[in-house]
Amino acid sequence: MKLSEIAEFTQGAFKNRLEDPTSEVELLQVKPLSLKEFNETLGLAYRISKDRDVTITVPKEKLSPNLLTDTNSTILHIHTQKVVWLPEKYTGLLITNNFIKIQLVSNVDEAFFEWYFNEHPSIQKQLAILCEGTFNSSLKLSHLKDLDVNLPPYQQQIAIGKIAQLKKKKKLLMSEKSRLQQLYIQHKLIQGITTIGGNKNDNQ
User: Fold this and answer.
1) What CA–CA distances, in Å, run from 136 to 36, 73, 82, 93?
2) pLDDT digits 0-9 by tens, 7-36
3) CA separation for the pair 137, 51 (Å, rounded)
4) 20 to 30 A Cα–Cα from 3, which one of 49, 94, 100, 116?
5) DSSP 3-state assignment of 13?
6) Could you read off the pLDDT of 74-91 as tens digits, one per residue?
């Protein structure tokens, strides 16, 4: 079946087309979804050391619920061609033009779909063909809708999804362990230099 048969899609909005701090109608402050939240949820390193905590002012009438993140949808980043199921703490973020919201039907498990889209060979092969030869690869909404999917029964999806989430959690914990180990080693090295410098001064 086609992905369009089991999901509805919302293309993210351009921030500059939504933002209007001078409007006389009711205004809302909203924070756009960034790669920081996206990559952290996937367990990927985020290389920008300081991410800007930006909010924009949007007329309430322009801010449809479909443009906000929730726990009942998955989010696709069109340039990395990765999908993420965001946790509750990231609910209510504005979905911008680099993302597409995928609202799955009731018999598709979000945790399973995240794993299936990101790791299953059949999906990865289709994505590779669609993005082949493009300099700045991005997945078009029309191509996304046309992806062939073959899903197992719902209960099997739930079981696979739980295993995939545990695997991702382990990856996050191992990454954090490695980071703390590097900080500890760095601290001991600096401490060692300070000690050596102090001993030299004492001998003089």
Assistant:
1) 21, 26, 15, 26
2) 999 999 988 888 776 667 788 889 999 988
3) 24
4) 94
5) strand
6) 999 999 999 999 999 999
